Automatic annotation (TrEMBL):
Signal peptide extent: 1-21
Top-rank taxon, per record: Eukaryota
Family annotation (InterPro entries): ECPIP
Phylogenetic lineage: Eukaryota, Metazoa, Chordata, Craniata, Vertebrata
Gene expressing this chain: CUNH21orf62
Pfam families, sorted: ECPIP
Protein name, entry field: Uncharacterized protein C21orf62 homolog
Keywords annotated in UniProt: Signal
Amino acid sequence: MTPPASLCLLLLGELGIFALGHFTKGQNSSTLIFTKGNTIRNCSCPVGVRDCDYSLASLMCSCKSVLPFAMEQTRYDHLTIWFTDASTLGQLLEFTLVQDLKLSLCGSYTLPTKYLAICGLQRLRISAEAKRPFREQSLLVPSRRDSRSSYKGWQTCMFISFLDMALFNRDSSLKSYSIDNVSSLTRDFPDFPYFKTSPIPNNKSCVVTIIY
Ligand SMILES: *[C@@H]1O[C@H](CO)[C@@H](O)[C@H](O)[C@H]1NC(C)=O
Ligand SMILES: *[C@@H]1O[C@H](CO)[C@@H](O)[C@H](O)[C@H]1NC(C)=O
Ligand SMILES: *[C@@H]1O[C@H](CO)[C@@H](O)[C@H](O)[C@H]1NC(C)=O
Ligand SMILES: *[C@@H]1O[C@H](CO)[C@@H](O)[C@H](O)[C@H]1NC(C)=O
C-alpha cells in the first residue's frame, strides 16, 4: 500500500507536470534556441525564463534537438537565442526573418567583429552574462513599411539589419544607423564585407540598418 505522504507527492508531481504542460502550451510561449557545446536545442518556453539558465529551461520548456545541418530557414515573431560562439549564432540566424529578437551571450567569450545579417528585425534585445552589473539593452529598428509581407528570400529581403557581433564585448550602448538609399550605402561603406560578397538588391524599397 502506498503511504499517504508519497501518494500526495505523486499527485503533486502529476499536477505539476500537468500545469507545466499547460503552461508551455499557453499562448505566451516563445521560441528559445540554445547552444551548449555541440548541442542545439529548440524549445518552446513560457515567457520569463532567466537568461542562460539551462537547467531551468530544461525543466520548464519543451525542447527538441536540432542537427546543425538540418536547420531550416524559418520566420519567427519572437525568438530568443542563448549562445556561446559567433559561428553557431551565424548558422542559426543568418538571413533569418525575425521581428523580435533577444540574444544572450552565455559565459565569458570574446566575439569577433563579424556582421550577422537578419531580415525584418524590428526589436532587438541583447545581454551578456559576463557583464557586471548585468543589464539588458534594447533597440527599436526603424521600419516604415510592413516588413512581414516583403520577405521572399535574400534578394527580396527589404529590411536587412547587420549586427556587429563585437558589440557583445563592449560596454557602450547599442546604436543603429539606417539608410534607405542603397547606392549611397555602398559608396559610403565600400569595404563593408557583405557588399563585396553578396550585393544588396538594388531596390529603392530596401532599408539597411547597421547595429553596432
Ligand atoms: C499573454 O500575455 C498577455 C500580456 O502580456 C496577457 O494579457 C495574456 O493573458 C497572456 N496569455 C496567456 C495565455 O497567458
Ligand atoms: C524550432 O521550432 C520551431 C517550432 O517547431 C520551428 O518553426 C523552427 O523551424 C525550429 N527552428 C530550428 C532552427 O530548427
Ligand atoms: C542615392 O545615392 C546616390 C549615390 O550616392 C545618389 O546619386 C542619389 O541621388 C541618392 N538618391 C536619393 C533619393 O537620395
Ligand atoms: C523592389 O521591391 C518591390 C517591393 O517588394 C518589388 O515590387 C519590385 O519588383 C522590386 N524591384 C526590383 C528591381 O527588384
